[in-house]
Amino acid sequence: MMARFSVTYWIGAADEQEARARALDIALEQTVEIPRDAVPAGYVEDEILGHLERLEPALDGRSGFVAEISYSDDDIGGDFLQLLNIIFGNSSIKTNIRVEDISLSEGILNLCSGPRFGMPGLRERTGVAKGPILMSAIKPVGLSAQELGRLAHDFALGGMDLVKDDHGLVDQRTSPFVDRLKACVDGVGEANAKTGGRTAYVANITGPATQIFDRAWMAKEKGAGGVMVAPALAGYDVTRALAADPEFNLPIVSHPTFAGPNMITPTTGFSHRFYFGLLQRLMGVDVVVYPNFGGRFGFTLAECQSIVRGAQMEFGGYKPVVPAPGGGMTFERIPEMQAAYGERVMYLVGGALIREKANLTNASKRLVAAVRGNA
Amino acid sequence: MMARFSVTYWIGAADEQEARARALDIALEQTVEIPRDAVPAGYVEDEILGHLERLEPALDGRSGFVAEISYSDDDIGGDFLQLLNIIFGNSSIKTNIRVEDISLSEGILNLCSGPRFGMPGLRERTGVAKGPILMSAIKPVGLSAQELGRLAHDFALGGMDLVKDDHGLVDQRTSPFVDRLKACVDGVGEANAKTGGRTAYVANITGPATQIFDRAWMAKEKGAGGVMVAPALAGYDVTRALAADPEFNLPIVSHPTFAGPNMITPTTGFSHRFYFGLLQRLMGVDVVVYPNFGGRFGFTLAECQSIVRGAQMEFGGYKPVVPAPGGGMTFERIPEMQAAYGERVMYLVGGALIREKANLTNASKRLVAAVRGNA
Predict the structure, then answer these.
(1) Locate the Ribulose bisphosphate carboxylase large subunit C-terminal domain: which residues (chains A, B) (predicted)?
(2) Where are the beta strands (DSSP E) in B140-211?
(3) B179 in reach of chain A (CB within 8 A)
């Protein structure tokens, strides 16, 4: 037998008999996808078919059951998308089933090198040894490359540690990728020269399937300090491939656009902790942007705290990924966020600063001071 | 002003005032993602910001409202993933909002060449002028390339028009991609030589981000008659890029694995018609696999019929995509499916035939006869 990993599902079911039947269906659906009586005896049945390892009532006052199903490393075949297929492929189309947890195996550990930087690497690169790291976003779409480069400059001058593209900035005629890359690298570099700081520009490389790796490498060559990918749009193997390449060696930011349906209902998709925490670490992501509680999206404080746990708990020796709550962050909310997160997250502030465009540098300085204090 | 396209959303709201506020939030969120009072006057406000074009109560006995929001071709920037960003990126993380429809524009029509084959092309390639086309799937994972090639041969000998890989078959050591490709092309070719038929082998090219296009071209070079992609895993631009390439010129099958959360709740994600119909046509998909009603998944008859409408209705001149309902199809269900779909769909039968492994060719012949009759 090859090594096995296991996935824990929450299953909605009226009683244990129904839960067991559903769990056995999952074990079949996620692996062989043929009727149980057609599964060939021997290797396929023993090795490839999912094994129901555990079934018990859900805890924490939830209804339903928790099922742990183990799968073979042989089924992964060294392919990350196939790992996701096994974890939740066809069963994602069912309701009353949710992915909650995963235990690792040799096959997964070999396939997924994990975050190259994570929290320790980001602290080293930014020079922020203590207190939260800060990231801002240049936008909106429609500004010229020069205007965006100026915003990046002003953010950097104000002491923001990372300045990323808005996820909607791709290769629009108003700000082509190549021009924006140059303008922002130059703008941030100019500010760093003035301040002696280490602000990094993070380029959004999400784009045409045939160009995404070219953009990643171009970003690196031209001096970007990180790249951003939207995995739900660009595919779930892009970040893993970049993180696994020692030559690439740049921090990777993951953006949640288009990913919403994967976690927004409590009885389908993934738990927040799994999707924005564990999964991102398998994907080799260094910084994971997610919607903050109390902002424009509906995530609760408890869900956000579970994301931070998933991002930073012990997990196969993988580095902790940096959670970056965003989406409606304002100055007024800093105390609330400090209480909720301490220094375990990166503060992502875009719109609230852009609003003070004329005084962007000063607004950034005020934000850095308010978030980091004298740390 | 550039040409504009518009997206129609269903919005859950207690009254028109709330619906309007939510619609205006969407127009902002999907484009500039900064506070309304920070949107620069002129080009950004006039052109890039979404315009609320229409807001009215939902019909068909549904609660809530329907909002039509228009967006600029300039915002797309010739990038399909950015088009999806605009349609539903960040708003996908909200609940009580669902994508229902899209109107096209010059920018979309230039970017998306649509299905190269679609229903007419598939009929021509398979030689099935009338009656449903049939597709089967070789599986399970764990069989050798030779065993899978034998299954492909037997299906072809039995008259199945297309024989596709199971979506879980990637590059496992039991059946490496290259070996399986050869075994299946050879197996199907041998059967075609015996029957004079035109069965095509459809290779699953979903795999590592750095290899997916290589696999597509290898499949073509080695004689596959089509390729299969799981867009929710591999990214949403892969099929569009392949369909747009005149040199590639092979039918593309889209598989729904991992896509479930995008449409399984009625108040989030996409309508079935949009996701499995309109979107697939923009993606250049020729055959779209979706879960049939009454099978292992929870889709209703009405939802499935809406998929067929979305796949085949007039839509910017794009060819109709071939809907392929699968997931638990059996001989017994043929009359019910004929009543529901007529000859507008491709019958996808995997497990029910695999079960009769020893008599796969005869079982396939019986299925073809039962589905197509004397047509």
Answers:
(1) 123-352
(2) 162-165, 200-204
(3) no
